[in-house]
Write a structure and sequence with these properties.
alpha/beta; single chain; Rossmann fold; about 250 residues; Ubiquitin-like (UB roll); elongated; 3-stranded mixed sheet; 9-stranded mixed sheet
């Protein structure tokens, strides 16, 4: 019985000490002054739509909110984190204050994989997660071009990974994930009936892809065209390649 009481007393003592230490650490942390803002940006080497200065502007509301020199207890880290999360080019934002009083900011950049070009309004990018992003005046990224019917509607979506444009998203994903197709396909044009025409970077023939379905099968036929038909007959022998029909490649 005495042993049992001693065990309970020891556990209670540990819990009390732990609570005191946590409380002390919390008080000490909140009494600190923010010394510096230290920013880490993932994927920055791959695109430059957002840099350290942009992050600082978001955190400080373009200088209206003083961060450095302010007591940590007065900083609403959750609100600042939410502010960063609302920036379309960022796909994550984490903020905390370290033991030295530095505000540690870790953000990730969305990587655009296609650009929607329209003639009656601003262009837009489509990120790897399907998020529709605005264009930037400070940086332009080389990407597959989307044109034609529905370009206006696509550019006004929030995300195309699901819903009406999910198949287009899958088509873009497939092209970008394949090194050969990524280097070869320059443009995806959507025509009135919802079918798609692909335009290559180098060769002159356009590719009638048809409806966005059976993507893998159609691209296997296209690869056959590039690997076997063109080398035999010359890279500019044809002006049109049709992949729409099952088990057929029509070249003209």
């Amino acid at each position: 019985m005495r042993k049992h009481i001693k065990t309970i007393s020891w556990v209670a003592g540990v819990l009390i000490i732990s609570a005191l230490l946590i409380g002390f650490e919390s008080v000490e942390s909140n009494s600190k002054v923010c010394n510096d803002i230290i920013i880490t940006i993932d994927n920055q080497l791959e695109n430059h739509f957002v840099d350290d200065n942009d992050i600082v502007d978001l955190i400080t509301l373009n200088g209206a909110e003083i961060i450095e020199g302010t007591h940590v207890s007065k900083l609403n880290l959750r609100e600042i984190e939410q502010r960063l999360a609302e920036e379309p080019f960022l796909n994550k934002a984490e903020i905390y204050v370290d033991h030295s009083g530095n505000m540690m900011v870790h953000v990730g950049l969305r990587k655009p994989m296609a650009r929607v070009v329209r003639y009656n309004g601003p262009d837009a990018y489509i990120g790897e997660d399907g998020q529709v992003l605005p264009v930037s005046s400070k940086y332009s990224r080389r990407a597959v071009i989307i044109t034609g019917e529905k370009s206006k509607e696509i550019s006004e979506q929030i995300n195309i990974a699901d819903g009406e444009y999910a198949n287009l998203y899958k088509l873009i994903q497939y092209i970008v994930a394949d090194e050969f197709l990524k280097a070869q396909i320059a443009q995806i044009k959507i025509i009135k009936n919802g079918e798609v025409i692909l335009y290559p970077q180098i060769t002159k023939q356009y590719i009638e892809f048809g409806k966005i379905e059976n993507i893998e099968t159609k691209f296997k036929k296209l690869r056959l065209f590039y690997d076997e038909i063109l080398p035999r007959n010359g890279w500019n022998s044809y002006s049109r390649v049709n992949l729409k029909y099952k088990n057929q490649i029509i070249c003209e």
